[in-house]
Amino acid sequence: MLLIHCPYCAQTLPELEFTYAGEAHIARPDASSPVSDEEWRNFLFIRTNVKGPHYERWRHSHGCGRFFNAVRDTVSDRFLITYKAGEKRPELSDLLEKSK
Amino acid sequence: MNLFRIPGQGRVDPTTPVEFTFDGKTVSGYKGDTITSALLANGIHLMGRSFKYHRPRGAVCAGSEEPNALVGTRRGAGQFEPNTRATVQEIWSGLEVTSQNRYPSLSFDIGAVNDRAYMLFSAGFYYKTFMWPKSFWDKVYEPFIRSAAGLGVSPSENDPDKYASRYLHTDVLVIGAGPAGLAAALSASRAGLRVTLVDENPEAGGTLISEPQTIIDGVPAWQWIDQTVAELISLGVRVMTRTTAIGYYHQNMVGLCEKLTDHLSSPNANMPRERLWRVRARQVILAQGALEKPLVFDGNDRPGVMLAGSAQTYLNKYGVRVGNNAVVVTSHDSAWYAAFDLADAGTKIQAIVDTRAEPAVELVAGAKSRSIRILSGYSATGTQGRLRIKSVRINPVINGKVGAPETLECDCLLMSGGWTPSLHLFSHTKGALTWDADMQTFLPDRKTEDCEIAGAGRGLWGIAAALNDGAAMGAVAARTLDKVATNTVYDVTNDRVGTGVSHTELPTDLDPGKARAFVDFQNDVTAKDLRLAVREGMHSIEHVKRYTTNGMATDQGKMSNMNGLNIAADALGKPQPKVGLTTFRPPYTPTSFGAFVGYHRGDHFDVTRKTPIDSWAEENGAVFEPVSMWRRARYFPQNGEDMDGAVSRECKTTRSAVGMFDASTLGKIEIVGPDAVEFMNRMYTNPWTKLAPGRTRYGLLLGDDGFIRDDGVIGRLSTDRFHITTTTGRAARVLNMMEDYLQTEWTDLKVWLTSTTEHWATIALNGPNARKLLEPFVEGQDISDQAFPHMSIVECTVAGFPARLFRVSFTGELGFEVNVPACHGRALWQTLWDAGQQYGICAYGTETMHVLRAEKGYIIVGQDTDGTVTPYDAGISWAIGKTKPDFVGKRGLERPDLVADGRKQLVGLLTQDGKTLLEEGAQLVLDANQPIPMKMVGHVTSSYHSDAVGRPIAFALLENGHNRVGETVYIPMPEGVISADVTGTVFYDPDGARLKL
Ligand SMILES: [Zn+2]
């Protein structure tokens, strides 16, 4: 069972309190103006499916209820960082440097 | 009567004799014995039959890695366990033990014919033998595989034992209480850390128990164990014995299974049998030691053939000599010491057969002083003896050539192929291994967790090395946790360090293709099987493993993996690290389901949510059904009615008088804030801006893919407040989805979402008498049709309770839903129930609710839709606000596939004979005479008998369904083909006149 740091609660808590919520930084296109089929398909279905550091969303569903972002290595299952929704996507090179 | 017991030796308690039964016969031993040590003390080596060939087998080792001595144990009614490792299970008076995989008896077994058909059962035989002819599958192959499958017999009764679980946080968790683990725990606890020390055995000590001659800092080994454990306890260390570390998970979480009662003859009935611990440790020290390898030669599995180190354990720990007349076959020094100990205890050692040409001088001297014959540079090439070894065939090997054989008589054979570090838990962490060419073994390398490996687990050999490494690793852990620690160095005398070499199969002068040289004893895999697998194209160790099943038994190849790898690598002509090691997975040893289940059984298996009115339903004989986590009243049978009878009565009463229904499980979400209406417009398909406070509307929720997710009636209480209802099963998912959009897409909106499902008890009143019943109790609102028309909502008082009153109907009848705070739910229900008697009221359940809604063509999301249905498909596109700029699903609905022809659409079905009830899930075809496989064009989603319509009714999702109204579809069933007319979905009161009473 992983321990996950909630950036809103500022606490590291057991995985049981959290729910995975898919890849991060996929913005919903503004559908009030025309959006191509391809763009909408990409938004709905196309994911990077990386082997390695993955930008993804989690929700502190049995805690503060907030969605937040994380970078987790899909090979080691290790979190490199968690950060609040809306914050800038951290550079991978900085994270890998820090984790060394 | 323990013929092979040496009085005064070992750690068993000779003052406490214990009698148990083995296959019905009484066997005596002492407190402290395992099943195996007690059997061996009585000269019994035959303990079971092997899995595939039913070959007679005895214990090959003395620990939890045992592959052969698996037995059934019965502790009492319902307390039967198959595949108990006899080498681990402690005996107590009354324990019933049975051997496995034999019929009719252990010494005469019919299945042993498999052994004679050995040539047929080679590697991959399942893949080859059961291929053809096809007609043999049902009658011959499958019954054969089924009867042959499985080890032992599954228990047939419910397990009456209790199981517990706990969490534990500790600074340092030390796994293994041998010399390395004890020393590590000592350094870490002396440095002031909270330490937990666990060991799977009944007592701490590990190898030290089998090496009593060792002197540590002037103290004999056994005394050193006692004083060390005493000091650990005085330092506050939690010492847990009979506790196996079964798995090593992320971020230093280790699962432990503690066995509490299996060793007791009359445990307290309230005591749990096992306790599962989830330990989170800041540092873990793996001190699991090493496991001895067998040698691979023809007949190395006969009862009486045993690992030399294990024989040494039986002698020193239990005071049991494993035989009178032993031959030792070894490639490692350690077996020489086992031979010396046994010789000193009175066992005749016929010879020490060493594969190495030049054994160490001091070993040779030791053997000579005991008059033991030394045969160095020899191979073992076969054994004889049906139920126990009688002799071993040995040959000299000179310059790679196998010379003339010699036969040595014996009643036991002690073998050693060297030692393998126990890396299972380290492997659970995906820690990297490195190949040590000198030692011919894998050692731990790069770590992924905060752990240290101490002692034999990282290839260090000998008591001093283990102690000093343990002490050092304990100090490393302490310093990592910012404590000051000193490196203790132990002074050890009588340490018996040694070296050895590693082998594939031992060389032989006989046909190796006919040799039963076992690698995996539990799964009956031989060296020949492994070589055959390589010849047949299995070039990865993972393929070899699956093709031969080597290492796939419940021991996970603890004894067989390295020998298997050596042979596969040799056959492939590659070095071992290029062939690789298979993955070890938790649990380390077989673990009972009970331990994992813990408290979560019976009523505690899952949460049961109950409404405030549940107790009334129970008192009034409701039959319940689970709906997501709720238990809901399904129907209320009266006077012995069956479900059909009860539902028929409930439907008729509701349509003709009034019915009341507990709708409290409906999901409820309160949406509040200045941007509430904008949020609603974006979230739901419907337009909300013009919905006046006091009015309600059917709301439809899609995903952004355009498919229906949920629906429910939504009331607007004021300009900035909505009361949403969702389907029972989707309340949490709907709220999660709303929060997702609100928190991450529409952060500009000022809206707050609150789950209020449990806050309200909801009572639905439906039927022509509903208003007459309710009216006298309502204060603050005229509920006449003019003042409170269909689809209204108001906050008022009902029977003195604050209420949110909906005028709404899911039955097609005049309907109200009264929401009151949950604590008043049952009181209001009782009040309405009492008052309703004069109007002929009935209580109805979910089954009647389903029928009534189906008669009216109201869909249930999740039953009539399946996640691929659009509002158009479901016939409810009227709920889409077409002029809104955007809402969730709007763009999705324009996707090419969603506007294409040929989509499955919801229709009604009426069976043409007017009597046959369709089966939900049944497939539809357009032509019942087409050849099989037929083209399926849809399926039945809902089907009920309807009293109001006077015939069965059904819904179906049907390809191009909306254009097929009036056509006939066919439903092929095992009993014959049913034909049905395609209709609209409203079967009753199509104009909705009854809603407007
Ligand atoms: Zn939080």
Topology diagram in text:
The complex is a heterodimer of chains A (100) and B (997).
Chain A lengths: L2 E4 L4 E4 L4 E5 L13 H9 L7 E7 L7 E7 L4 E7 L7 H8 L1
Antiparallel strand pairs in A: 1-2, 3-4, 4-5, 5-6
Chain B lengths: L12 E10 L2 E7 L3 H7 L6 E2 L6 E2 L12 E5 L5 E6 L10 E3 L14 H4 L8 H5 L6 H13 L14 E13 L3 H12 L4 E4 L8 H4 L4 E2 L2 E2 H14 L3 E3 L2 E7 L3 E7 L14 E13 L3 E3 L12 E3 H11 L6 E6 L3 H11 L3 E7 L6 H9 L3 E4 L1 E7 L6 E8 L2 E2 L3 E4 L2 E5 L2 E3 L2 H5 L4 E4 L4 E4 L6 E3 L9 H18 L11 E2 L24 E3 L4 E2 H9 L5 H8 L12 H12 L3 H4 L13 H5 L16 H6 L3 E5 L2 E6 L7 H14 L1 E5 L4 E6 L3 H8 L12 E7 L5 E11 L2 E6 L4 H14 L7 E4 L4 E7 L3 H5 L3 E2 L12 E7 L2 E7 L7 E7 L3 H12 L4 E3 L2 H10 L15 H4 L21 H4 L4 E8 L11 E2 L13 E9 L4 E9 L8 E6 L2 E8 L14
Q: Care to give the gist of this entry?
A:
Helices cover 17% and strands 34% of the residues of chain A.
Structure commentary:
The complex is a heterodimer of chains A (100) and B (997). Chain A has 100 residues and is of the alpha+beta class. Chain A has one domain (3-26, 40-99): Folate-binding fold. In chain A, 17% of the residues lie in helices and 34% in strands. Chain A has helices spanning 37-45, 92-99; strands at residues 3-6, 11-14, 19-23, 53-59, 67-73, 78-84. Chain A has a 4-stranded antiparallel beta sheet with strand order 3-4-5-6, with helices on one face. In chain A, strands 1-2 form a two-stranded antiparallel sheet. Chain A is globular and about 40 Å long. The mean pLDDT of chain A is 94. Chain B is of the alpha+beta class and 997 residues long. Chain B folds into 6 domains: 17-117, 2Fe-2S iron-sulphur cluster binding domain, sarcosine oxidase, alpha subunit, N-terminal domain (Ubiquitin-like (UB roll)); 163-290 and 421-485, 3-Layer(bba) Sandwich (FAD/NAD(P)-binding domain); 295-416 and 502-510, 3-Layer(bba) Sandwich (FAD/NAD(P)-binding domain), CATH 3.50.50.60; 517-573; 667-853, Probable tRNA modification gtpase trme, domain 1 (Gyrase A, domain 2, 2-Layer Sandwich); 856-995, Gyrase A, domain 2, CATH 3.30.1360.120. In chain B, strands 8, 9, 12, 13, 14, 15 and 29 form a 7-stranded mixed beta sheet that branches. In chain B, strands 42-43-44-45-41-35-46 form a 7-stranded mixed beta sheet, sandwiched between helices. In chain B, a hairpin with a 3-residue loop joins strand 13 (243-249) and strand 14 (253-259). In chain B, 52% of the residues are buried. The model of chain B has no long low-confidence stretch (mean pLDDT 95). Classes of the chains: A alpha+beta (100), B alpha+beta (997). Chain A binds chain B through residues 1-3, 19, 21, 27-32, 35, 37, 40-41, 43-44, 57, 59, 61, 65-67, 76-78, 85-86, and chain B through 249-251, 253, 278, 280, 430, 448, 704-705, 736, 739-740, 743-745, 747, 885-886, 890-892, 895-896. Bound molecules: zinc ion. Zinc ion (ZN) is lined by residues 6, 8-9, 60, 63-64, 66 of chain A. Chain A: It comes from Thalassospira mesophila. Chain A: It holds the Pfam family SoxD. Chain A: GO terms for molecular function: sarcosine oxidase activity. Chain A: This is Sarcosine oxidase subunit delta. Chain B: It holds the Pfam family GCV_T.
